[in-house]
Amino acid sequence: MKKNYSLLFLLLVSVGFAQIPSGYYSTATGTGYTLKTQLYNIIKGHTNNGYAGLYTTYQTSDVDNFYENDGSVLDMYSENPSGTDPYNYSTGTTQRCGNYSAEGDCYNREHIIPQSVFNEASPMVADAHFITPTDGKVNGMRSNYPHGTVSSATYTSQNGSKLGSSAVSGYSGTVFEPINAFKGDIARMYFYFATRYENTVAGYSYPMFDGSANKVFTTAFLNMLLAWNAQDPVSAREIARNNAIYGRQNNRNPYIDHPEYVNQIWGGTAPSGDTQAPTAATSLASTAKTSNSITVAWNASTDNVGVTGYDVYANSILKTTVSGTSATINGLTASTSYSIYVKAKDAAGNTSASSNTIAVITNAGGGTGGTATELLFSEYIEGSGNNKALEIANNTGSSVSLSAYTVKKQTNGAGSWSTGLVLSGTLTAGSKFTIVNSSMSSSCFATSSANISTTATELTFNGNDAVGLFKNGVLIDIIGTFSGGTANFAADVTLRRKSTVTAPSTTFNLSSQWDSYSVDTCSNLGAKPANDTNLEIPEETFTELQGLILYPNPSNGNFNIYFNTINSPYSIEIISILGQKVFEQSNITDSLSTINNLPKGIYIVRVNNDSETFIKKIIIN
């Protein structure tokens, strides 16, 4: 968690600069690339401690004495500067395990400039000034992609670092974007590399490099690094790291000691002197809506510095800011028209003109438009033997990506949270996500019907083990009390969240939040949403029913829906037996609709036409 370090920063700055050897930069008198060469001559020829020696260096260079202040490894790809870290590593342990299947397994060494760029040659391969300790899973996801601003993320780590398509002007490949708190740190590592290896860098092939020994970077990536350098100034953490590495390697990162060198060499005009605004986003369109939300998407803007985000407006009011090219606006009113547009922003603080404006009317009230503010635990089973299960409900009214969510457990009311069970996929509006112990009795629940079936520690809880739902590493909902002691709060019982609870809570209150049922009550786990509980499913299958025809036999997951009495627009919903909406399309005017690749399972097809509803059960085998 971020703390107030203004005084500490001043102290460390004075101490840090005091530790620069007297006369170390005395020959750095030039400007432009002349100054860069002078700095190269100062910092070249450092002591090479070998690749394995990096872990020794990290014991003093990358210690968290600045956020949690707990002495753990400070990892830029997992540190949460404004909250609880999703996981922590101790120096000298949980390193190089070779098993990076999930975040929190173990950490390794991240070359900010990938090893493949310089063919793993020495001394580059072991230079701690641009090689940091990072979580092995996230390091693997970053791979050898360049750092850059992400337009649309395909992967997001638990602290918010992203991998995805590039928003850097002129580069269309994949990039990796760290969180804002460490963008300056990484930019200054790039500037260090460009200087320390000035004698060889022109021969390195890398998307960020232009093949020169002086400028080193392409214009677009240079502008981005300059912007990152300016928006995230040198921190106390960087100064301490620079001093620690100097003690091991006998050279320093000059751009931490003298931040002004960056602009003196590369003419850093960003962000204050770069006034070019991003281009306006195009092709804004609505992709989904409920009674209280609208989801929109658009084509990315371009910018010479790099687009950092988009502001989304509804009726001229700023509703949300996102980094990608889609957004969901929540908290809207049913059956209401909204005028929506977006504006792009860049790292220099410039804002684009408005995109095209669209008018969207929210759905009428009812349906799956929920009132919850966030995902929450909806059911908890602590039964006999291995009858253990958790259920998470999405009553927000909009689809929610689960990539940011993790379930963790504390054992016997003491100690730290477990590493966590990472969730994935998308939970559609009105749906439920079930997690069960894979050894659960079939008489209680069919584990094959669960979203996750596992023997992980998070699903071996007992009645005194608090279970938490985390989003981006921050606890948002809890069953039980963290560090509540060994007394049972919910043993041999099924708990179901009361319908009046519309928001998660980090404080557990059994009587006001939950209804209790006898041991091994499993009948409701993963059941249909509340607004579907009275739905009568006809037994007829694959035959005409009130004008609704399905053909050919949909058993292979590919079929057509024909509505032979159509006289107005209609909608189609396909709902799994667990209550999850797997397909939805509205305002259909054609009498024929095609469904493809529906997975194996039992489903309800529901067609709504004016005030009439037609329903058919299908089996995909």
Which key terms come to mind for this protein?
single chain, 621 residues, alpha+beta, Immunoglobulin-like, 4 domains, six-stranded mixed β-sheet, four-stranded antiparallel β-sheet, 10 helices, 28% strand, globular, disordered N terminus, Ig-like_fold, signal, nuclease, hydrolase
Describe this structure in words.
This protein has 621 residues and is α+β, with helices and mostly antiparallel strands. The chain has 4 domains: 6-266, no CATH class; 282-361, Sandwich (Immunoglobulin-like); 376-526, Immunoglobulin-like; 548-620, Immunoglobulin-like, CATH 2.60.40.3080. Helix content is 16%, strand content 28%. The chain has a 6-stranded mixed beta sheet. Helix 1 (6-18) packs parallel to helix 7, helix 2 (32-43) packs across helix 9 and helix 5 (183-196) crosses helix 6. The longest helix has 14 residues, at 183-196. The radius of gyration is 28 Å and the shape is globular. The protein starts with 5 loop residues before the first helix and ends with a strand. Mean pLDDT is 82; it is low at 1-18, 269-273, 366-370 and 528-545. This is Endonuclease. Residues 368-505 form the LTD domain. Residues 1-18 form the signal peptide. GO terms for molecular function: endonuclease activity. Keywords: Endonuclease, Hydrolase, Nuclease, Signal.
Strands across the major sheet, in which order?
20-19-14-13-23-24
Helix content: 10-25%
Profile the largest sheet: 6 strands, mixed
CA-atom Rg in angstroms: 28 Å
**Quaternary form:** single chain
Give start-end ranges of low-pLDDT stretches. 1-18, 269-273, 366-370, 528-545
User: Which percent range describes the beta-strand content?
Assistant: 25-35%
Distance between the termini: 50 Å
The DSSP helix count reads 10
Strand count: 31
Q: What is the general shape?
A: globular
Number of domains: 4
Structural class: alpha+beta
